[in-house]
Amino acid sequence: MYLCTEIVEIQNDMEEKKYLTVKEWADEDKPREKMLLHGKKELTNAELLAILLRSGTTGKTVIDVAKEVLAVTDNRLTALSQLDYRRLARIKGVGNAKAVTLLAALELGWRMQGEISDAKEVILNDSMAIFNYMSSLMVDLDHEEFWAIYLSIRNKVIARQRIALGGQTETYVDPRIVFRGALECKAVNVVVLHNHPSGGLHPSVHDRHITKQLVEGGKLLNINIKDHIIIALSPNGRADYYSFHDNGLL
Residue 100 is part of which domain span? Predict the structure, then answer.
């Protein structure tokens, strides 16, 4: 009887020793120390999230919690940035404060991309260039937005303007606002864009109607509607787009 009890106690001790907290790891394995030693590029996504999370919970290291966070969206950061903080907060070891911290950091990443685009002369000659220029502003929104980009005769960006905000399925767009901005900027070409929070990229009847209105209005003012781009997350969780021009609708 005593022998069995001793065996169980020994097994329990061994199981406890298998679990090491981050503080007990070698410095080169700790996320913060690893970043200081080798630089941020050497850290995995889980290790970067772990730095933001700061601590784990009973039976789980901060790395374990970070991996669970990433698993929610199959390790896709773009999809992660779209989540409501309450979904992340339900993960054991996260909670409201850490969920908000993670989403704030992801939002800063998107805004940094926008600043990089704004800081240099941008030429938008094709749909891919347009998508790359605007995706950081639109892809992770939970509502529709309609934007216009005003271009010179050689397709250099003069300005961009958010024209309208809508709900999850539709946005009302006033063509007069689009063309007023074009006239103020002395733009020759205009690109319009909107996002689909639902994820589908196929243009709706409403999308086709507003595009036709803008094209016809542009002809009267000698302003060319260069393209209409729809931005959304594809089924695999990656940012993607649909171009009216590329699909022969302009």
Answer: 2-113
